[in-house]
Design goal:
The chain has 302 residues and is α/β, with parallel strands linked by helices. It is 40% helix and 22% strand. A hairpin with a 2-residue loop joins strand 1 and strand 2 (56-59). Helix 6 crosses helix 9 (274-301). The chain is elongated.
Length: 302
């Protein structure tokens, strides 16, 4: 049975967006046209591909099976196009990266800008969200994670380890009771994650300090850092954030010192896509250098 690749493109867009309107926006088609194309594809296949409701379009088991094949075909076409255009020189096209907002705010802007400086035809999109990205639905081409994935058709490369410490501004410390032991933290305002929105066990930092209550909470690292910047309390802060906080000082560094790891995760079907391989190589090297540079600055400042 022959298929129109345009129908596959529509199928992939709806599978990833789970919405006719969102898929239509991505494809520059009106939702009614998208719906007709999906209906035509299902009619040709003799099988429904989606569970349809007022909430949207969600792949059923038949749709999941087709998605795996359609994704591989999409990857093969992209690889063929790259080879025909001889992309042995500069990188081009769009690369979308999903990342927790700590790295997205304090590391990736300068790293990605440097890669784009060397590759003027390249466009980089950073999706900064504190959650796990679904690479099978192509929410991103690659994602930074804090844990190595254990399921799915994914491949992971270790980027680098990084350090975190308990910290507060000098102004906060000067105006509050001294902190000499961990138990002294109970008399202080603690900043951290909203407990039921912790998206990865690796960000459950305060569990390692014995603190059981957070007064100021956010699912965003940027919000937490800005509270620290304003002298609102103490928080576990990435060392690579500290150079942006002029008055920050580590607290109990000999007792509260954490190490975590960044991984770069990609879909296994992209393993042979040379453009993404080359970008990943430059990206990993850039993040490693930037973490080392910023942590060195933090060590000299505190």
């Amino acid at each position: 049975m022959a298929f129109d690749w345009d129908d596959m493109r529509v199928f992939l867009a709806v599978a990833r967006a789970e919405s006719l309107s969102k898929a239509g926006k991505a494809l520059k088609l009106d939702p009614a046209t998208v719906g007709r194309r999906i209906a035509r594809l299902e009619d040709r296949l003799g099988a429904a591909l989606f569970a349809k409701s007022v909430q949207g379009y969600v792949l059923n088991s038949e749709g999941e099976r087709l998605l795996a094949h359609a994704t591989r075909a999409e990857t093969a076409l992209a690889q063929g196009a790259e080879e025909l255009h001889g992309q042995a020189g500069q990188l081009s096209g769009v690369v979308r990266i999903g990342a927790p907002d700590g790295s997205a705010n304090y590391l990736l802007p300068q790293v990605c800008a440097a890669i784009c400086d060397e590759n003027p035809g390249l466009e980089v999109q950073i999706v900064a969200l504190p959650r796990v990205f679904n690479l099978s639905k192509r929410e991103a081409d690659m994602a930074i994670t804090l844990s190595r994935p254990t399921a799915g058709r994914l491949m992971a490369q270790k980027i680098t380890d990084y350090k975190l410490h308990l910290a507060a501004t000098q102004g906060y410390q000067d105006s509050h009771p001294p902190i000499r032991r961990l138990k002294d933290l109970k008399g202080h305002r603690i900043i951290g994650y909203i407990p039921d929105m912790i998206f990865d066990k690796e960000v459950d930092y305060l569990a390692e300090t014995g603190v059981d209550h957070v007064t100021l909470a956010s699912n965003s690292v940027a919000v937490q850092v800005n509270w620290v910047r304003q002298g609102a309390g103490l928080a576990i802060v990435h060392d690579f954030c500290m150079p942006t906080l002029p008055d920050i000082r580590r607290v109990l560094p000999d007792k509260v010192s954490l190490t975590r790891t960044f991984y770069l995760v990609r879909h296994l079907d992209d393993k042979r896509v040379e453009r993404l391989n080359r970008f990943a190589e430059s990206f990993i090297a850039g993040v490693r250098r930037e973490v080392a540079r910023l942590e060195e600055l933090a060590n000299h400042a505190t």
